[in-house]
Amino acid sequence: MFCLAMATNNSSFKFSLFSHLVLNLLILLATSTKTANSYAFSIKEATIEGIQLAFRQNQLASRQLVQFYIGEIRRLNPVLNAVIEVNPDALYQADKADYERKVKAPGSLVGLRGIPVLLKDMIGTNDKLNTTAGSFALLGSVVARDAGVVMKLRKAGAIIMGKASLSEWADFRSLQAPNGFSARGGQGKNPYVLSADPCGSSSGPAISVAANLVAVSLGTETDGSILCPSSSNSVVGIKPTVGLTSLAGVIPVSPREDTIGDICLSLFISDAKVSSSNGSSISVDYNDPATKAASYYIPYGGYKQFLKLYGLKGKRLGIELSALVIDHLEIANVNSKNSISNDETIAMLAEFKLALNAYLKELVTSPVRSLAEVIAFNNKFSDLEKIKEYGQDLLLSAEATDGIGKTEKAAILNLERFTRDGFEKLMSTNNLDALVTPRSYASTLLAVGGFPGINVPAGYDSEGYRAKAY
């Protein structure tokens, strides 16, 4: 597994998640995998491209696909704890897609239409599903509307398959809680090595894709929450530029760093097109003002037009921990990474309290209306939330903050300085188009600067991530 990170002093590049470089990296890597035309179709291990082809050739119906995934979830989820809820309306949505395909409705054979998508349990849906961040404190809460990305998925014809598990409160509950654990979802397990760390916080989306419980899922990332579980579970994870995907209706951690991205099984070219571009997750959402600023950098016609074979020719990559291009790549002030992590935590604690309180107040109904009430709920139902075992120290630390004061402003300025004099200077000085690192080691650099990244399965380590454990 490796992670591709990007940055430049040109601000327009920062907002080009699916720039020529990233998309062409997808193509380069995709050419080393089989295409859907080279083998008989099988739902298991199927990519979006393969599913679309099977739809067109009448080898597969959406109902059949959803039934297969439901069966796999019933069979494997008791071990993997990857899915919190299955949408009771998933088969109805599948039947609708099949009918549209039968009558040859416009657009019925393209994009995500009729393809099931699992959502991390941070992404709000105004339907029969709960949105709880993995906590019983939000069970039964009702959102005012679908999250912005969910609206776009529905418009694209995707089937909302259900909610995937996660590290509770996006890994912002306690430093003692293990990755992939939530009170509602239990302990998520890596399908390759059940005893291995599945990483988080988007553990469920990554586990689900790796275990063939769905072909594509949506996760959220603040710092490493898509890239790390994608690496640990050997799937593809895309962390978009902050502001490029709408956060409206998503349970927040830090609006300054939060973003939503795709997790897929394979790097087929059309998967990159469909899941990320045709999925329509990238556009202005007036419920999230940050998307308006980002929209100015989205090229007319979207990003899929830049998919070109051999598009990496002439590009310059910095390889961390490798002699290629730049030996022993170093970043200015990297010896102060601990202080940068501390500054990030200071800012995020205050941001989390402010953003979460605002989110909770906007819910139509909810058992809790503030972070303080979440903490009180956890104390009252400590057995449900495993408070005695894992605690809630991060929630308590966040509640102790009092807005964005001098300390928080100073921390944010340090993060901006680190980005400008560190990562951006590194890229500019060495004339790099991208930085490649093992696993998700660059996640903090990307997080504090709001930059995009992609994780690509590219090998296995000594712990034996080779065969799925089930």
From TrEMBL:
Domain Amidase: start-end pairs: 65-261
Q: InterPro entries from the xrefs?
A: Amidase_dom (IPR023631), AS_sf (IPR036928)
Keyword Signal appears in the UniProt entry:
yes
Signal peptide positions are 1-32
The UniProt keyword set, sorted, is: Signal
Full protein name? Amidase domain-containing protein
